[in-house]
Structure formats: structure tokens, C-alpha cells
Specification:
The protein is mainly alpha-helical. About 55% of the residues lie in helices and about 0% in strands. It starts with about 35 loop residues before the first helix and ends in a 6-residue tail after the last helix.
Length: about 575
Amino acid sequence: MYKSRVYPGSDSSLTRDSGSESTPLLSSESRTSPELIFGDSETSDLDPSPAGSSLIYGSVDTASYNTILATPKRPFPSVRDSELFVSTMANPPCIVDFDHEKNYERNVDLTLTNENSNAKKTHEIDFKPGPLQFQSDIVQTTCKDFKPKQSSLVTIFSIWNTILGSSLLTMPWGIAMAGFFPGIILNLLMSGLCLYTAYRLVVAHAYHGGGANVEVLDLCRVYLGKWAEHTARIFSIAVLLGATIAYWILMANFLYNSVNFIYDNIAGLSTHPASENISNKEVLCPKEIQDNNTIVTYEKTFEALGPAWDLRNTVPVFLALLIFPLLNFNSTTFFTKFNSFGTASVMYLIVFVVIKSASWGVNMDQVEWATSWVIRPTFPALTGILAMSFFIHNIVINIMQNNRNQEKNGRDLTIAYFLVTVTYIIVGATFFMCFPLPKSCIEDNLLNNFQKWDGLTITARIVLLFQLVTVYPLLAYVLRIQLLSWICKGRSNRALVLFINLVLVSICIIFATFVPYIGTIVRYTGALSGLIYVFTFPNLLHLAILKKEGKLTVYSILFHIAIPVIGLLNLIAQFFITDR
């Protein structure tokens, strides 16, 4: 859930809403590129736009927003085999923005009626074999000098780095909800399913003719209709909202524990475990459980701070005092400078889990090994998390179109998903297998299982807190411009921007107070948005293309309809799980 990366050939203007702004939680990269949105500007959506521009207060230019990227009457050259459409991306034709769609159709008609003429007028479009060419005084191409320069290796690790996020914190809990081996198998199955649907989007983009300005929303509009575009936009906003809520819960948790640790040290109080905790152990069980007639209780918060410093009731509000001013920061590029720091935080978290697990050793008795193959009835909690964990579908086109070797997109995407899957399994299975307490003690935020005095743990919390504080304003900005571009057609003012920021922060505070469970937020967000972006629209796009090519079969329909049914069942199952 969605740090950020700028992709060569991407439109750096604020004049279009990509619709691909979902952010992986705790990821080092957002699922859209803030540079793609912000460019090199030192202004935010609260700064007046340059002279002559209609962009102000985060607006999206209405003319550009209303542009329809329709295919010309004379179709693009395409590969007939739908499985090989990706290869056409090697030399993608330019996709252009017209002031009005009707002018575009008129120009095409003029060209078709005069294509045998020796002297063409300057306002005509000249169709020639290969990529489309346009007269320079007619339109301005958005893919000028588009030359993908990203190697396969960079592409692979870009995807790996983009997908990884807060699921690293929740994966051990997810495996505990599903069972050890069933959790690993579900990881593999969901990874394969998400890989397939992500690849279907890349194929659809290639079939459409490529282009830096064509994204999932555009494909949905062209091949499925306006309803699909609006639906995709709604669930894109839902992903962003879920991500901001999860971010807020994590930031409140990290802030609370970090302040407690610092206060104890400044006050000269003992930061070592209390006697009521498991002796000489760095881990704890936050929820009370009964195990061999021994009660394991959570370490009490230092009571000297009083009720004014409470994780649920007051800390989320104190966090708002810190974050809200940043949402209106005059320079958005200030936050993008910390993008690489996100990568370091994710790597630190992986190393942290591996070191801790190695120090504990394997802690599974014969009974646990014997039941490790039994799938638990709460396994949908893991599938909901995984739907978010492997979510890259609304930005996969942006990444893959910059791959230098377009014919290897399928291979590179597969390798990237394989690396992500291995990372999740290593973190989740290793922590679960080595955790020294009963497995039911594993929290949906694995850092909650550590004592506050542990040095590596407090470092992880401080590092992740700083990273989230820099990423949250970018995420909120993307959510805001997407909402404005849809509802207000990009027209806004300072008061409306402040109102949206206030509503967003209020929603986050409410969830952090009454539903402060990161696992619950992630699994519902993943199951809900995954139903549309992961399980449904990629398959519908593929069926629409097959129908257009005259290759639609009954078997293909049954297979690609079964996948959305799986997504629907995954969503329904979330309402029947008690994870507390």
C-alpha cells in the first residue's frame, strides 16, 4: 500500500490524472510516481500556477482531462496472436492528445479522403507504414523522443521494490491465520494469479499501441466503456484511502513507542522487561492468552505520562498536529528527495527479521509440525492481505513500458513477482517458524511482538516513522488530485483543498482510534480493490480484445470469468473472519 520513481517518457505534467495512484504500504516506491505528478516543480497544489496555466490548487486541466484517447479509424498495426502483443511495444507508436475528439475524427476523415493526393494540406494527418506520424503544427505528441532505456535488471528490481510494503509487517500474522504450509501455498497461488492479471494489462496496453499516456483507466474506457473507467477510478481512490488509513495507524504506533522509549531513557527509568513478562526474552504477547496455566501479559505503558499520552485516544490526534501542516507544504519535491530512504527502510526490516529469527532458532514442536499442513478456517485473512501485497496493477504499465527489451516484458515481470514471493515467504515463514512464544501471539504488526527496550526494534520504528512521515503527504496529494480531477474536473481552491485534507485526517484518526488493526485494514482494502483491479478488469480487457480479434472461445470465457468469481469470494469471506 503505493517512495516514488519517475519513469522515462512519462508525462510530468499535472494536466492528467493517471488513475494509477495506489501506494504500497511502507513501500519504498509509490504505485504512481510523484515525479510523474510533480515534475521538477517546487510548488504544491496550494501554489498558484504559472502564468497562462489553468492549473491552480491541485487542479487538472479540464481540456486535457476530457481528452479521449480513441484509436484512429485506421487501426494500428498489431500482432494477431494475442499472446504476442507485448512484442509490439518494442517500437510503440506515439499517442497524442487532441484538444477535442471531434477535431481528431475530422482530421482522420480528411486524411483518408485525400491520401492519394500528391499535395496534402498542412492540417492533414499523414498515415504511413509503421508508427503514426503527425504534422508538427497540428498536435503536440506526448511521447516525443520516447526511448526506453531501462534495462531488464532495473525493471525487475523496480517492480520488486514497488510491490514490497507493509505486508512485510503483516505476513507472519497472515501465515498464522492460514497455517504454516497452507500460508506458503497461498502465497504461491496468489502470486501466480496476480502475475497473470498484471501481464494481461501489459498485453492490453501493447495491443492498444503503447504510449506513455495510456494507462489502465484509458484502456477501460476504450475497450469496456465509461462505466469501467469510473469504476476503476473509484476503487483506485479506495486503495489510496485504505493506504492512508494504514499509514496513520502505523505512524501512531511508531510515534507512541518511540516517545516512550526516549522518555524512559531521559527520565533514567529502566527500559528492561518487567518481571511479569517472559523472563529474559525480548519478545512479548500483546494479547492475553492462556498457555499451560501461565498468563502472559503485555508490558504496561509507563504510567507517568498519564492518560494524555494514550496509543488509541490521544496519540492519533497529536500525530495530526505533526502531519496536517505537511499536507499543505509549499514544496512537494522536498518529500520526493527521501525516496531512496524508503528502500533502505524495507531492506532494514528484512534484515531485522532474519537476524532475530536466526537468534531464536526454530521453535516448532512435534504437534505444531504435525498440524502445519492443516489449513485454518481464517485463511481468507491471508488471501485478503495478499491481494494487496501483490498489487501493482495500476502502475505496472508505467514501469514495463520503459523496459529496454519490450519482448522480454513477460519474463521480467515473472522474475520480479518470483522475487517478491520469495521475500514474503522468507519473512513470513521464518518469523512464524522461529517465534519463541505461542504462534497465536503473533501480531498483525510484528514489531508489536518486541519489547520497547530492544535496540534493533526501536531503530526500526524510528526509521519507518521517518519514512512514513515523508511519504504520507505525497500519498495524500495523489489522492486529492485524483478526487478533484474526477469530481471537480480539476477545478478547486484553497478552501476545498484544506477541507479535503481535514476530512482525510479525520477519517484516519477515527480508524486509528476505533479500528487500529493494520491487518484488518490491509485485508479489506486488498480484497475490495483487488476484486476490481486484480481479478476483474484485466480479464475483461483480455476478453474484449479476443472478441475484437475474433478469437473468443467458450473455454477462454469460462477461465477468465472464474478469476473474478475468486476475487468476489475472497471479498465476501473477509466478513466472516474474526481476527481479534
